[in-house]
User: Fold these one by one.
Assistant:
Number 1:
Amino acid sequence: MKSHKIPDVKTLIVIPCLNEARTIDDLLLKFSSTLNNPADRIIVADGGSTDGTRDIVANFSMQDARVILLANPKRIQSAGINLAVEMFGQGYDYLIRIDAHGDYPDDYCNRLLEDAVHTGADSVVVAMDTVGHGTFQKATAIAQNSKLGNGGSKHREGAKGHWIDHGHHALMRISAFTEVGGYDESFSHNEDAELDYRLRKAGFRIWMTDKTRMTYYPRSNVRPLFNQYMAYGRGRAKNLLKHRSMPKLRQMIPLAVMPVALLALLGVFHWLALVPLCLWIAACVGYGLWMAIVEKNPYGLLAAFSAMIMHLAWSTGFWLELVSSVGAPAPLAGKAMS
């Protein structure tokens, strides 16, 4: 693979986190060993961890002054990254966002910087490999890696490097980030898609790299997975309300799930009300059986169950956000950072 020389740029690596004691030390070891410029910094924006995360980072920073622990009183990731850029971003060229729930190849940052320099992109996004350990987490990972769970999303499946509208955030030019106002802190989820909308509207370009990718570990049981996807659905609806940006077809299909589930309640009066719900369940189970038989995947049927949780939660969150917005003031599309 051809490598492009990395110029003398200054990079700010930001890790927003909350209770990540199991993973934070390994992440700091990995990324502190790959910093290119003596001025590069790793900012851990902690949202008030109570599991020892803060002590781990503080101890690490005593050994390596390039690692900085930053309190994030607003707790959410978008606010943590905004605060890190506001306090430390002056004079830096690029921001690299690291998810504490993920794992990364050793050359991750270098590959991102190479592609940013080679393409001239203002933002470089990556594909995700979702991996699980326990039974439910493995099934959920399979669901999220499949079209049943991701609808063909490019940042889930990966593709040859190309320009794109949205992807999983990895690297961003700090001047572009600050010009559009950073993340909108009213978004606890889907803040990346919302920011990408403003980046594109302002004329900035987003590149989907094929030079590297990250590994993501999904939620390991039902309730956190449902809550996560319900928040994603709310975020997608907030994006629609703020920018009048319609969901893509792959997102619109799952939107029908909650209305179909509500319609099924009328099944006590007539069996036809159950048909749409039964068709959805049959489609999911059928896809799970196909994975189990054709792909010889023992988690196929359980992956279908995980996908149904994701569909229902996403649809529920979307409609709840729309209903709750009725009569409320329209959200502004202005800048989020001060």
Number 2:
Amino acid sequence: MAALSRERLYTHHVGFLVFNTQMGVVLFTLPRIAATYFGTNGWAAILIVSVIATFNIYLISLVNKVGKGESFFDIVEKTIPKWVLAPLYLFMTAVFSMIGCLVIKQYALIYQLLIFPSTPDIVLKMVVDVLVLLLLLKGIYTISKANIIFCLLLLMLAPIFAAFTSEFDSVRLTTSFFKDGENSVKGFITMYSAFMGYEISFFLMPYASRSVKWMRGVYIGNFVVTFVYLLVTIICYGVFSYVQLKHQSFPLLDLLAYLKFPFMERIQNFLYSVFLISVLVTASMYYWTSKESLSRLVPKIKGTYLSAAIMFVTFFISYMAETLTVVEKWFGYLSVMLIGLAFFLPVFALVILLFRKRSLPNV
């Protein structure tokens, strides 16, 4: 136990965790999202969204610095009674767990569509759920270490995109920006949800290095995700054009279908299967955050039991989301809640920290 208590998350652990948590299944639909909601050269919206996400990360880093690594829960509970915070904790538990659930559900539905059309999606989801639960029960430190290997496997796929240089035509990008887009507000929320995942760093403070330098990993992870999103979206814009992208369900899969190898057919299905490792980490981190929130209300129940209970409940809720359309609709609602939490929680914590500092001389 003493060895475990000294274990800490460092910059590279956090960087890889943020990168893999942000890198969701949305990568396969992001070019369509950019083309549909932002029109010509919609890839540029990724830069705007990334800057806003970086500002949110800055707010989190301020909480870490001012609070000296103290967890969000300890910060607020020293000032506000736990029974007052109970609705917030329950809301956080519900939002984070459902995001984790829908990440798996979305992956399972697409996997069923591509590879196993005769297999019920709930069976595929159950298999992924078991893998996520096994990873979740190992704890945050084991997840962070396993995640490094997962990330390296994903990054090894990056050179594949060099194969599309011959198909890329800069004329398809056009010279205009953000023309023929639809509902830019909805588009902004949808695209911003693609960057969500960095907010889990807000709950890593008590597990991270005592040095504030570990927050650099969050910035680095967000930067790498921005680069990958830009790379994929710009290539899709240059190969298909924004008009074609609007009518493609999964532009990245269509792009990968161009690849031909003598030893493998339908390379896009193989690469989508490899992407399971990202889904495992994304879902496990959201379920872990949900468990952390709920454990503050029921501290006497072991975290392993809470994790299993949360996944059990969300598994049955996922029955109601039978199609990708419904899943995306639910994601839309939950994304608004998640974005709200991502900004509200650090601001809330900063207000309490400032209030505590002002009250300190009078104690």
Number 3:
Amino acid sequence: MPVFKRVLLKLSGESLMGQNSFGLDPSVISKYAQEIKTIVDLGVEVAVVIGGGNIYRGMNESETGIERAHGDYMGMLATVINGMAMQAMLEKLGVYTRLQSAIKMEQVAEPYIRRRAIRHLEKHRVVIFGAGTGNPYFTTDTAGSLRAVEINADVILKGTRVDGIYTADPEKDPTATKYETITYKECLEKNLRVMDLTAFTLCMENNIPIIVFDMNKNENLKRVVMGEKVGTLVK
């Protein structure tokens, strides 16, 4: 029996690249879609927010010559492309979906309407939220936290390449140790960059737990929603 009724799954755009240096790896999206289908079949209501870093990463103006706000809008459009790819893969598996965009683009996505999103979730459609918050200067982590609060999600599941939160970057420091559970306050005090500060504060103020886990390990998503000790719980 799943321990969560409604979850928000946050994926990075970079995770969709697979072994590529840019763009989308269909095999990765297909694998993620299969993992999502598994938990939908268990009766879990699923919302998804995907970053856009595999297509466009908001780099600073001095590097690109593109002003920050303009670059952020480009990044938002990239998240819609990723959302469309995920939607296509899920529907191929027979999962009903809706893509909602914070920037109006009626030909490809519904506009984001909170009550409509909740209704879709109640009907067990996977709702993919695209275009971030619709505002520059906010990350997709913040968009994920905001949408989780708005739809009353039980938890944010942050799928990453590592299996939790460590004392240091485990890819760079072999002595780094993993936290099983950690408080919001400890994360802030130790400067563990789980999410950016705005996103993190939203979760903390609204008491939404975050589970950071390795999305690339088979059936990890299912294990998380079934209440197994996977990754790191921030509460």
Number 4:
Amino acid sequence: MIEIRGLSQTYPGPTGPVEALRGIDLHIPPGEVFGIIGRSGAGKSSLVRTINLLNRPTQGAVIVNGRDLTTLGDAELRAARRDIGMVFQHFNLLSSRTVFDNAALPLELVGMSKDEIRRRVDPLLELVGLTQLADRYPAQISGGQKQRVGIARALASRPKVLLSDEATSALDPETTRSILDLLRKVNQEMGLTVVLITHQMQVIKQVADRVAVIDAGRIVEQGPVLDVFTRPQQAITKSLIDEIVPQELPASVMARVRQLSAGLSGGVGQLLRLSYAGESAYQPILSHLIRDLGLELSILHGQIDEIQDQPFGSLAVFASGAAEQIQSAVAHLRQHGVQVEEVPSKD
């Protein structure tokens, strides 16, 4: 559905050219919810705005639905953009128009009749839960409701792609969850490809199928969300997922490790950090380590959550016993799909 090849974007700056995007390559299949995440200034908004050529790239190809948008003339590009809806952070509603009229605006601009507009917009307002508010003005509705109007407006042209540029960053957590649920509903019921731009991993966790991490204008990591969350490779990725799965253990945990190590009467102790996902989360692996290998285990820290109905989580476990028992335990865990980090003690 979306193919980005060798995309670069350079802007003139006060002290010289600014490279906002550097050699971006992305493939987004049809029907997928694809997340693009990065810190402020990483280039994510520049990237999403090249997908509909609101920003024309300095070089590279942007292929949407089989057409390279960078090769189209103005009239062809305007027609191609009807296949690409966009939802903005700050809603961009017209204060003098009702909810219905804001949603209908793209259809009026292409000359659709009032009856046709009514047949198109009424079902959209029902889809986004605003049928009862059709005659209200933006000043009379909440921020979440304004964003639902924005989504209805973006869907009015029956696009094949929906771009969401920080669409939930101005909303409270509960409203954010409801908007993300709506975007997933739109994805599933209408078969739309959805591209989410965000700086919040919680957004990616809730709704995305795959994610790309952008940093300093480059894609530094990408893959299925579950894989990226449980096996982050880059420092920026680890930093971003820290809000969901903390990457550093609390000082209190390390203090407890020192206490346990000091209290050993024989054998050795080792702090193990375990990361697991999918089927490994359901297996009684720790029970096996205690029963069959004779280890003593103290669970010091941990959490479990879900992504796309798949469990994932982490545990910090202090294992005490003979050195060979601990190494056998590490091997057993890895054989069962658990990632194991042997955390060195800090004096």
